[in-house]
Amino acid sequence: MRVVVDLTRCQGYGQCVFLAPDVFTMHGQEALMYDTDPDDAQREHVLRAAAACPVQALHVDRMATQHRTVEPELRHPTSDVDGEFKRNGHIVIVGASLAGGRAAGVLRRDGFKGKVTLIGDEKHQPYDRPPLSKQVLTGWVDAEHTMLPHLREIEVEWLAGTPATALDIGAKQVTLADGRQIGFDKVLIATGARARPWPKEAEAALDGVYVLRTLDEADRMRRRLAAGVNRVLIIGAGFTGSEVASVCRGLGLEVTVVEAGPAPLVGALGKVIGDIAAGMQRDAGVDLRCGVTVTELVGDEQGRLTGARLSDGGTVEADMAVVALGAVRNVEWLEGSGLAAGPWGVATDAGCRAVDINGLVTDDIFVAGDVARFPHPVYHYQFMSLEHWGNAVAQAEIAAHNMLSDQAHRWPHLSLPVFWSNQFDTNIKSVGVTSIADEVVIAQGSVEERRFVAVYGYKGRITAAVTFDQAMWLDFYRDLIERAAPFPPDYRMVGRPDEMRPVPAEVPQRMAPAAGATVVVTGHDPAERRVSLVRQQP
């Protein structure tokens, strides 16, 4: 039995914990944890829990879609060419990820009868990444038990452990590492991202240094933790680093977190909320050091990690280090393809169609998930890349629908970003984009109790909301964002303070989209003018 909870929808009511306590548990007020592959003896309890979930966030063996057509299959009129493609066409999906697997299911649901080829560089079927830094590291769930429930049983050509190395747009071919060339009529790029490694190769190779992104990486970390660790050093206090710190403290380990910024989570939520997260970590016994970087990882003569040297002159003893410095988008295989692909990801339009290097939209190449960079109308059409579970699901469904639709029936990807994190027995959830905000206000609840809603605004308009153990309010604020409601919010709500005082959000300036790459424009006549990508050397 495969179970997954769509935590973008979960509001912490806890009915599942009451009805199936051997499968679901709540840490703190709303931090839900669950067994992703419970014994079949629990099936009746789990099914009751799924039926009782007020927001229908619990899926057993099958996953529901976020975007639904009126009919099970697309019913709008199609041309003879479109009809032939749906019957006999060939769609290649590069990336056997959450996005890739979801897209394959939607293609079949919407009536595609042709051939679907799913290419993955890992040997595993699509699996759920959020449990890796939570349930898997604690040893509660085996890494191989995080496989995602299928949308439906789908017929695909499955090419596992065979990474793609090139894309030829003109010839409509994907080249694999083993030299094979796979032709396509349409292709979906869903290659995602990988963990950013420690930049010094010799130090990264020390026994005891880890990154966390994939199922295999999580399994190796779990085995190391189970074998016995004295002190853990975590480099970076973003969401992954903070979640790993929470797990390690829960296991009773000594933990040092080194963060270059002024507070944990500051890159995503700003310093105001980051300071609250810093208090959570220190109250849990984490040795948190902000405004400091690791300058060197140190090992013994046997190549085992012993500690680190810091930029402030200090040192840390550790026999395990987790490098949590963000992600690198998997675009190297697209070099020379002619697509606008670089450190920022692969540029797309709002309908998930890839943009080429000249800024022109392609017809048969689509992109979804962490690797996509797309314009969002709600945020002034700024291009953004989102490493969120919910975005990968929603974007994959839009891409699959649009691959089967003509121009008049395509959908735009307008879902607001939603993400969550369970750490230190607290459920943190967010809707919208915090990074463009200039102010933030505590609109409900208590910071002292760490149960509150923080609302972000930009030039008098609500742009995002973050909840600490107050997830039930997230849909309300999602609606306010979509309606361009004024900031600060002026509603009589439970827990509203007597006086709301917006303060600067202190969100750090984001990396310029073109950092690490630029373009050169050549030619004079419109028919000749072209762009070439110039990559800056690190």
From TrEMBL:
The keyword Transcription regulation does not apply. Residues 419-490 form the Reductase C-terminal domain. The keyword Cell cycle does not apply. Its cofactor is FAD. Keywords: FAD, Flavoprotein, Oxidoreductase. Residues 90-396 form the FAD/NAD(P)-binding domain. Pfam families: Fer4_15 (PF13459), Pyr_redox_2 (PF07992), Reductase_C (PF14759). This is FAD-dependent oxidoreductase. It comes from Nonomuraea roseola.
